Amino acid sequence: MNNKTILIVILTVVISFGAAFMYFNTFASPHKPVEITYYNYSPGGEFITNLRGNNKFVKVSVELQVADKNTLKVLEERNPQIRDLIIQILRGKTEQDIEGPEGQQRLKTDIKNEINKILGEGKIVNVYFDEFIVQ
To answer: Do 13 and 48 fall within a single domain?
Structure first.
């Protein structure tokens, strides 16, 4: 083989490997992270209500996390309904229902699920308590 043929074979191999490297690093990356922006919504102030079954009261500040701005707008429009729903959920709980981290997590799940029944499944992503006091 002459020098020209060897040079052409080497250049072809180098260009092929370079093209494959570029393809797999730019176009065929299977796990590109998708960034989701979350928004928090406060249904306004704190909730103070009695618990079911005894003379105990609960004082809670709630933040609702949503994934899109349209849901924020709907929450603002339906704020009285959302506040009423949260109060009804709290009033239906006993002190034992909301005791400890597990009880608070169940309460968060109940609030999220009930609001999602009104707004549509998956609209509320998470529920946070800014304040949680039982007396």
So the answer is: no
Tens of pLDDT, residue by residue over 26-71, are 766 566 677 788 999 999 889 999 999 888 999 999 999 998 899 9
Helix (H, G, I), strand (E, B), or coil: what is residue 6? helix
Q: Is the pTM of this model over 0.85?
A: no
The β-bridge partners of 129 are 62
- Pick from 21, 27, 33, 41: which is nearest to 86 by CA? 41
Q: What is the DSSP letter of 67?
A: S
Which pair of tokens denotes residue 52?
Answer: 């079911």
HSE, side-chain direction, 13 A CA sphere, residue 58: 27
3 state SS of 44: coil
- The parent domain of residue 6 ranges over 1-33
Closest CA to 134 of 60, 27, 53, 25: 60
Tokens found for residue 75: 């929450």
Do both 66 and 128 map to the same domain?
yes
User: What 8-state DSSP symbol labels residue 39?
Assistant: E
Give the residue among 101, 109, 64, 67 at the shortest CA–CA distance from 82.
64
